[in-house]
Amino acid sequence: MCYAIPGKIVEMNNRFAVVDYFGEKRNVLNDNQNIKINDYVYAQGGIVVDKIDTKEALKILKFWKQKFFELKVVDKNLSQIKTGETAKKNKNILAILQKANQNRTLNRQELLALLRLKDKDELQLLYKLANNIRQIKNDNACCVHGIIEFSNCCKNSCHYCGIRKESHIQRYRMSPEQIIKTAETAVRTYGFKALVLQSGEDPYYSDEMLELIVKKIRALGVLVFLSIGLKKSTTYRKLYEAGARAALIRFETSNEKIFKTMRPGTNLSARLNLIKKLKKMGYLIATGFLVGLPRETEGDIIKNILLTKKLGADMYSFGPLIPTIGTPLERQRLMDKNLMLKIIALTRILDREAKILVTTALETLDKNGKKEGLLSGANSLMINVTPPDFRKKYLIYQGRPDKNKQIGKNIKDTVDLLFSIGRAPTDLGI
Ligand code: 5AD
Fold first, then answer.
1. Is 322 close to ligand 1, i.e. is its CB under 6 Å away?
2. Which pLDDT score is estimated for 276?
3. 368 C-alpha to ligand 1 centroid (Å)
4. Is the CB of 250 inside a 6 Å radius of any atom of ligand 1?
5. Which atom of ligand 1 is nearest to the CA of 327?
6. Ligand 1, atom 2: closest residue by C-alpha
7. pTM, entire model
8. What is the pLDDT of residues 368-417, one digit of tens each?
9. Binding site membership of 248 for ligand 1 (Cβ less than 6 Å)
10. Average pLDDT of span 115-138
11. Looking at residue 3, what is its pLDDT?
């Protein structure tokens, strides 16, 4: 777990260190030779990203001291299951939820029964249980990463995606200088401590260009998160050396037939192999799938969650398909929000300590998606920091609620939402 509030280094042993946050201890990795015991640092995803001046740290901690404990109380109250909530429910479902609560392994039939829940009260109980597990295992930290969408050019033809090469959209590529400048603003003006660099699969950016971008952004004192698709593992190796420490790459679907149809010319095993290699290289891994592809069954969804877990995901990233005009899937039916909430809850039951993202696609599906996702087991978010002129052209799907939203306003709304449900926004140095 990471807090973007300064923590104090209280133990050190080579690359391993222990950081203290108001008495809570967290293990972290530290590559910075200049950091010593008693220094204050920012850590992200278990990695020290920056050292912070003691005076400055104490000032920030003064603000946080009271807030930190106040938020935890709100979160705890919201996530407690009260006895009345379990009355009058289907006995079979109650028994499965009880089993999940005791951290006993659920079999396929039980997982399917939860995924098929329809009754409103039973759904609420499932979400509450997942939220409760999240609170007990992860406390109230919520990652808030910034995301820069630096190119909407893509060499692929994925049937679901609005930036597939056949799409008649206005294309853009941000220059390395523009990307670095955007990152500087995100860090210096808005206080982000982790930045995701996302693009279509765009061969235009050479290894040298990407290395320069990563180095410069890493030097701002943030966790650099890559979301650039399938590249050679040697490229990812160079980018790790340049300072990138996390990679977001969804496998999209574990169903080989669906993968083949939806992603012509690409290959599921190559994608899975790359994810495995990146994990071995030391990258923090964010991966997951799309929900609602044609011919997908409930069994496929369960397989997708289990595969994400098997890949050792540090962060789960899955979202609903948003049918997009101009793509082969433009006529696909929009899914029910509850299916997404059930998947978040099941994921939390199956992987109690993971980070689970609420994606913008869920917010696009339903304007309350962000809050409801967070109350169903999720604990991570991203805020778009792409300059507006580029952002509105990053049309993976249409109708994104953050399309025209000012960055400052989006941060304020997100922080207000998080505070209202007792979550501490991490990765954002506020
Ligand atoms: N709806 C929702 N998500 C989409 N993605 C691509 N197209 C869509 C769409 N129409 C997702 C893919 C990709 C991520 C960057 O965006 O899962 O991995």
1. yes
2. 98
3. 20
4. yes
5. 10
6. 321
7. 0.94
8. 999 999 999 999 999 999 999 999 999 999 988 888 889 999 999 999 99
9. no
10. 95
11. 53
Q: Residue 343's pLDDT band (boundaries 50, 70, 90)?
A: very high
| pLDDT digits 0-9 by tens, 92-104 | 899 999 999 999 9
Asked if residue 397 has its Cβ within 6 Å of ligand 1, the reply is yes
**CA 250 to ligand 1 center in whole angstroms:** 9
Would you give the distance in Å from CA 399 to the centre of its chain?
20
Which residue's alpha carbon is at the smallest distance from atom 7 of ligand 1?
161
